[in-house]
Amino acid sequence: AIQGFIFDVDGVLTDTAEYHYRAWQRLADEEGLPFDRQANEALRGVSRRESLMHIIGIRQYSEAQLQAMMERKNRYYVESIATITPQNLFPGAIELLTELRQAGIKIAIGSASKNARTVIEKLGIGNLVDAIADGDSVEAPKPAPDLFLYAAQQIGLEPDRCVVVEDATVGVRAAIAAGMRSIGIGPITRVGAADIVLPNLIGVHLVDLQAQLKLAPE
Ligand code: G6P
Ligand code: MG
């Protein structure tokens, strides 16, 4: 049976996927680079560097310029998360985390963001998670399985005992590559490859997930 849940953060537990988008949009506008919400779809769950490479397209920049742009985007993003409070948790998140905890399920965070730990603390859920795998934990970004494998290791579980909760296509692909089950939050066009697809975390219960994953509850 399932013994661990690995939660992505941005776009799963809170609306920071939107904050990442706005920070990139601001940078792109300042640089005169074409970018919009539609183009941002390709950036969901993607690392900071890869996101920037996507936005600049064929334009050439020096490494120093790239670094400066990544720092600038991060500054905008960090400014935007300063006001996050537990109120910013998506509906249903605290209920699910609490239920999993009470059921003895291990909970890990599996986010590509170097800011994930700050967001978790600001959301007030640090006490509900057993381990945090973030943007500093591994080299290879999603869709490589490395981050989720690292998270599973941190909570002492084999990959096939873990379920990943993700809002990004690359995240679901990473979960599959890691040999884990997956719950996709969002539209089928984004997370249709997941074992279970849900619109959000409202009213989500462990027994239902286990049944849908065809696993006997322990
Ligand atoms: C997550 C987000 C991405 C973000 C990446 C890196 O995967 O979904 O939008 O680009 O983390 O975040 P960071 O805070 O390290 O720039
Ligand atoms: Mg995400």
Descriptive report:
The active site is at 8 (nucleophile), 10 (proton donor/acceptor). Substrate binds at residues 8-10, 24, 43-48, 51, 73, 111-115, 142. It comes from Chamaesiphon minutus (strain ATCC 27169 / PCC 6605). The record marks 111, 142 as: Important for catalytic activity and assists the phosphoryl transfer reaction to Asp8 by balancing charge and orienting the reacting groups. The chain is of the alpha/beta class and 218 residues long. 44% of the residues lie in helices and 11% in strands. It has ten helices and six strands. The protein has helices spanning 16-31, 37-40, 48-56, 63-81, 93-102, 116-123, 146-154, 169-177, 188-191, 206-212; strands at residues 4-7, 106-110, 131-133, 162-166, 181-185, 196-198. A six-stranded parallel sheet has the order 3-2-1-4-5-6. The longest helix is centred in the first third of the chain and has 19 residues, at 63-81. 41% of the residues are buried. The site of 6-O-phosphono-alpha-D-glucopyranose has 18 residues, from α1, α3 and α4.
Unreliable spans are: none
User: Helix-strand pattern, N to C?
Assistant: EHHHHHEHEHEHEHEH
Summed over residues and divided by their number, the pLDDT gives a mean of 97
Rg calculated over all Cα atoms = 17 Å
How would you classify the helix and strand content by structural class?
alpha/beta
Kindly state the percentage of residues in helix: 40-55%
Strand content: 5-15%
Number of strands: 6
Shape: globular
Report on the biggest sheet.
6 strands, parallel
Strands ordered across the widest β-sheet: 3-2-1-4-5-6
Q: Name the ligand types.
A: 6-O-phosphono-alpha-D-glucopyranose, magnesium ion
Number of helices: 10
